[in-house]
Design goal:
Distance between the termini: 70 Å
Structural class: mainly alpha
Strand content: under 5%
Number of helices: 6
Helix content: 55-70%
Radius of gyration: 27 Å
Length: 112
């Protein structure tokens, strides 16, 4: 052993004849300043938003809102409450909502 450490990647590159053959000067375009200022999750959120992606719980929230505004019967309330239970299981805790009743449908329309 002529070295004090193992450099596996260096050995692979050296075997391929590319150890000192890296010249990246002027390659690619620089990252925007705001990309560097945000963390990885914030960058993901911006890219996803720009692509039109909505988390499943937000899609379900919009669906529940439409159902609440068109609710007329106890059967509709039952369907909505099943969707609210599913919504509460996948959304952030602070966004969870109460189940609704036919008597409180007007208040539910304000909430949703």
């Amino acid at each position: 052993m002529d070295r004090k450490y193992n450099d596996l990647i260096g050995d692979i590159l050296e075997g391929a004849g590319e150890k000192d053959n890296f010249n990246y000067k002027g390659k690619g375009k620089p990252l925007p300043k705001e990309y560097i200022e945000r963390d990885i999750f914030q960058n993901f959120q911006k890219i996803a938003k720009d692509a039109g992606f909505l988390p499943p719980w937000l899609e379900l929230q919009k669906e529940i809102s439409a159902l609440v505004h068109s609710c007329k019967t106890e059967k509709d309330v039952s369907i909505i409450n099943k969707k609210i239970k599913k919504y509460n299981s996948i959304c952030p805790v602070q966004m969870q909502k109460y189940l609704i009743s036919l008597d409180g449908i007007e208040k539910a329309k304000e909430v949703w």
